[in-house]
Amino acid sequence: MNRHIIDLFAGPGGWSEGLRRLGHTDIGLEIDAAACATRAAAGHPTIRTDVAAYPTTPLVGKVSGLIGSSPCQTFSTAGLGAGTDDIALCHQVLDDLAAGRDTRAALRPLCVDPLSLLAVEPLRYALDTRPDWIALEEVPSVEALFAHMARILRGIGYSTWVGILNAADYGIPQTRRRAFLLASATRRIVPPEATHAKAPEPESLFGPGRAAWTAMAYALKLTNAYVITRGEHVGGGNRFSTAGPAWTLTGRARSWKLSATTSGPERELSAVEAGILQDFPADYPWAGSRTKKFEQIGNAVPPGLAVETLLSVLEPARLPRAVAA
């Protein structure tokens, strides 16, 4: 029987690109038309569907790996933030699913934001399909939900790890902090070891130190420049130098302007440049309007960070670098 890697809320293909770099393929479940078009153009298999409505019964015995990055706007400070009022309901649904009760339909009307309960979907799929491994990603405020899921998964035999990772620590030109849950039914989970640091580290007895964070200017082949986040507004907004990593990209990065000085002539950050900052290839086939492209980019997992986390579940447990050396 063929077994597959299933990618819940697959978006434009951040996890898929990471898997491709490692020689694997996933099947994405995604409802957004623009994201599905991007995935199709990039060659990533996709089923256009509502993850919350998709039945798990046909997947039983057919899932080797489960990936999930549920929509984060409801829990994000850059988005609606309404999900913070629904956290208790999410915890209740997690406990109910673990007990064999699906109370999603009964509790969804009680939520401030109906999208909040999408955060529990990975556990539903995991309990029903029992994959060999699981990799989940979300905004940091969901870390407590991930910890709850991890306790449930440990109770049925999985090794788990939950924590916050900064994309800049893995060579991505962006200080993007996200919560991850990694789990395996077949091996001990060791979280990914950072490859980069804010300042370069000297060589030690154990080998070369970590390289410095990747600068936005280096990734985009810019001379010294500044990002101005105010968009079309005459005044206000924030500014940061491209001499370091970019700030976290969200859909709002479509309003970012690049300038040679803090007050000189500006131009828009392009979708291609935003994709590069999210570690996608420059020729990645983003579909849709400028707004939809930036929405997809901002919601995606950087493929290089996906690689580092996937190595923790796809390969045998590794010794820390200093010991292995």
Overview of the structural elements:
The chain is α/β, with parallel strands linked by helices and 325 residues long. It has two domains: 4-197 and 302-324, 3-Layer(aba) Sandwich (Rossmann fold); 216-299, no CATH class. The protein is 29% helix and 18% strand. The chain has helices spanning 14-21, 33-42, 87-98, 104-107, 121-129, 143-154, 216-220, 271-277, 290-299, 303-314, 321-324; strands spanning 4-8, 26-30, 46-48, 63-68, 133-138, 159-166, 177-184, 196-197, 211-212, 226-228, 239-241, 257-259, 266-268. It has a seven-stranded mixed β-sheet with strand order 3-2-1-4-5-7-6, with helices on both faces. Strands 11-10-12-13 form a four-stranded antiparallel β-sheet, with no helix packed on it. Strand 12 (257-259) and strand 13 (266-268) form a beta hairpin. Helix 1 (14-21) crosses helix 10 and helix 3 (87-98) packs parallel to helix 6 (143-154). The longest helix has 12 residues, at 87-98. The chain is globular and about 60 Å long. The protein starts with a strand and ends with a helix.
Sum up the overall morphology in one term. globular
Q: Roughly how much helix do the residues carry, as a percent range?
A: 25-40%
Cα-to-Cα separation, first versus last residue: 40 Å
As laid out across the biggest beta sheet, the strand order is 3-2-1-4-5-7-6
Largest sheet: 7 strands, mixed
Task: Provide key terms for this protein.
single chain; 325 residues; alpha/beta; Rossmann fold; 2 domains; seven-stranded mixed β-sheet; 13 strands; globular
